[in-house]
Amino acid sequence: MPNNSTAINAVFHTLADPTRRAVIERLSEGPAAVGELAKSFNMALPSFMQHLSVMEECMLVRSHKTGRVRIYHLVPKQLKLAEHWMIEQRSIWEKRLNQLDNYLLKLKEKEK
Amino acid sequence: MPNNSTAINAVFHTLADPTRRAVIERLSEGPAAVGELAKSFNMALPSFMQHLSVMEECMLVRSHKTGRVRIYHLVPKQLKLAEHWMIEQRSIWEKRLNQLDNYLLKLKEKEK
């Protein structure tokens, strides 16, 4: 599915940055105002806003305005997509290793 | 842990490319010779080798020579590191959503 693949590219690209991962860690615990988020990072506000914009673009976070304050919250859907890809790969190689284990076990039993 | 964080940066960066993900998908099923891997991708060999080198640098794959053939295989350890980070985030927000659910349920029961 080319669309899923493009989405997964963007999610992994977003997660490759430690600031953006730290934002996700914070938002996992609940929504936060942009000011509250920004003050945790020793970074100029425009650079920090750039990170948030990358995250919003690939739909890992969403924001809305409440009065004069912009609130960010996590959108788990895209994270799940990337996690699903990883779990799928793991299940394939774990299955293969189990088959190898079984084969070696049978070989050992034959030797007895 | 700065070391883990640097490793996770590199793993997510590696996974952000569809060719490199396709190589992992192939290697999940078992080791493969470089020639066999390369022929699945419509790409000049030097570019393809560059992808393999990125993957070997962040220890997602390893290679060894058997005669004149270089064989690549998957190293699951680094993938697990990145997967662990994702699962940790999910467990935090799922716990928070459950707490919210319980709170709303109690509120509803009080209203009855």
What does this structure look like?
Two copies of one chain form a homodimer. Chain A is elongated and about 75 Å long. Chain A is α+β, with helices and mostly antiparallel strands. Chain A has five helices and three strands; from the N terminus they run H-H-E-H-H-E-E-H. Chain A is 71% helix and 12% strand. Chain A has one domain: Orthogonal Bundle (Arc Repressor Mutant, subunit A). Chains A, B: This is ArsR family transcriptional regulator.
Task: Write a short abstract of this structure.
Chain A is of the alpha+beta class and 112 residues long. Chain A has helices at 2-15, 18-28, 34-39, 45-57, 76-111; strands at 32-33, 61-66, 69-74. At the A-B interface, α1, α2 and α5 of A face α1, α2 and α5 of B.
Q: Let me know the number of strands of chain A.
A: 3
Sheet with most strands: strand arrangement of chain A: 1-3-2
The SS-based structural class of chain A is alpha+beta
CATH first level of chain A = Mainly Alpha
Question: Which oligomeric state applies?
Answer: homodimer
CATH-assigned fold name of chain A: Arc Repressor Mutant, subunit A
Q: Find the CATH superfamily of chain A.
A: Winged helix-like DNA-binding domain superfamily/Winged helix DNA-binding domain
Give the terminus-to-terminus CA distance of chain A.
49 Å
Sheet with most strands of chain A? 3 strands, antiparallel
Assigned CATH architecture of chain A: Orthogonal Bundle
The shape of chain A is elongated
